[in-house]
Specification:
The structure is a single chain. A six-stranded mixed sheet has the order 1-2-6-3-7-18, with helices on both faces. It has nine helices and 19 strands. The radius of gyration is 25 Å and the shape is elongated. Helices cover 30% and strands 25% of the residues. It is an alpha+beta fold. The chain starts with 11 loop residues before the first helix and ends with a helix. A hairpin with a 7-residue loop joins β1 and β2. Bound molecules: zinc ion. The site of zinc ion has 5 residues, from α3.
Length: 389
Amino acid sequence: MTAQNRNEPLDAVALAAELIRRPSVTPEDAGTIPYLASVLERLGFTCHQQEFHEPGSEPVMNLYARYGKTGRNLCFAGHTDVVPPGDVAAWTIGPFSAELAAGYLFGRGAADMKGAIACFAAAAARFVGERGDFDGSISLLITGDEEGVSINGTKKLLDWLAKRGERLDACIVGEPTSARELGDMIKIGRRGSLNATLTVRGVQGHTAYPHLADNAAHRLIAMLHALTAAPLDEATEHFQASTLQVSSIDIGNPASNIIPGTAEARFNIRYNERWSSASLREWLTRKLDAVGGRYELAIHVSGESFLTPPGEVSDTLAAAIEHVTGRSPERSTSGGTSDARFIHHYCPVAEFGLVGLTMHKVDERVPVADLAALADIYRAALDLYFPVA
Ligand SMILES: [Zn+2]
């Protein structure tokens, strides 16, 4: 199966298989992006392959491809990198052989998310094949650094685009957002995630002489109580309530007659749009200072919360989904974070793609019928976003 010629229809399944056969485990590209660029160039896209290389990390290949020079620019964003296959012997079909069996296309990246990239290319091919030089632009923003550290990917590509004066008017991220059936869920935002390590310093001593010591365990308990006594907030219109979960408490004191001088705890906060990592840091510091004593707080932010309120992009996607599948998608902010966290600073963004049940698992696969339907949905979204004048 080779992908196509300019005049033949681009087959989403054949293209997905070609992409899966290139084992692009982060940060390797394995020829995936040059191959995708060659397919898009034959369709009339102008392609820019950009390698980014932050010192101390592996270089990563990225792609920005654009069809058209005028009008609104609808961008499709995604990643060609995949997570490792794990135990290859456990796979029914080789993770990079991209074979069809029982109505499924098997392979690492089939669901997350080479399948969606192939569907968008197939949709764009049919759209430009019919509409030719329409008043508008279609672009693809593809990174090879989503599953890894995400420092040589989408964020840098967006910076690079902004410096060139390139504008995105709306963006669809093709992550596998469908929960059980294709079309049951769109993501319009994601919660933020903050990890913290709290270390309390006291004075070690003999349990029989507590007046000569300062028990770090007691102060840690008081501090964790202060953080967990009341909920952080309530659910908002589009988000669940923010939550703080203590994941570990470590003192490591083997003796029953020693007052510990140090006590440590770790916790994770998943937060909605009422908070930012800065406001959370302020809140944490205020609560901990109120308990008092010496402590250290180390904070790592994996992603801020973000939301694109229901509007043109999610409405367009929902209408396209309903047209093709008859389903009315839930607009959700559940799950982990995605590269949409970078894109929402530039334009309205919504995420929609295949069913994610097998992503990152052995025997990752998608129904062939879903690939055809997803290509139809993206095509319908293009029709709705660029109506005939
Ligand atoms: Zn993904």
